[in-house]
Amino acid sequence: MKSDDARAIEMQDYYRRRAPIYNQSMGYDDPAVVQKQSAVIEFLCNAMTDRTVLEIACGPGFWTRFIAEHTRSIVATDFNEATLVEARKSMADSDYVTFQVGDAYSIVI
User: Fold this and answer.
1) In what order do the strands lie in the sheet with 52-55?
2) Which of 28, 29, 60, 64 is least surrounded by CB atoms within 10 angstroms?
3) Tens digits of residue pLDDT in 5-61
């Protein structure tokens, strides 16, 4: 993706603005909603056990917080610092996660 792509810029701005309310808007602060995701959470935890993980577009870290304790480590990336601020809040006590600004469309390994 080119940095001047208007749709990409619009999408990035959308998620930047939603960052503070994203988890609430998705129901991720509601235990009943989280419970409905239990099969996916269990699958991810099992799949990520003892792995070193690169998470692309982690957003506010909903999935990150579940798999973190099962991994060796995670580098969780997102384009928006605003979403990473929210992710850091939920993972403040984790020794397994490093957050980093990164563009999913411009990954260089």
Assistant:
1) 52-55, 73-78, 97-101
2) 29
3) 888 889 899 999 999 999 999 999 999 999 999 999 999 999 999 999 999 999 999
Inter-residue contact 19 to 82 (CB < 8 Å) = yes
Q: Which of 87, 102, 81 is nearest to 1 (CA)?
A: 102
Judging by beta carbons within 10 Å of its beta carbon (0-12, 13-18, 19+), is residue 102 exposed, middle or buried? buried
Helix (H) or strand (E) holding 52, with range, is strand 52-55
Question: Distance between CA 23 and CA 29 in Å, rounded?
Answer: 6
* Cβ proximity of 63 and 84 under 8 Å: no
Per-residue tokens: 40:
């996916």
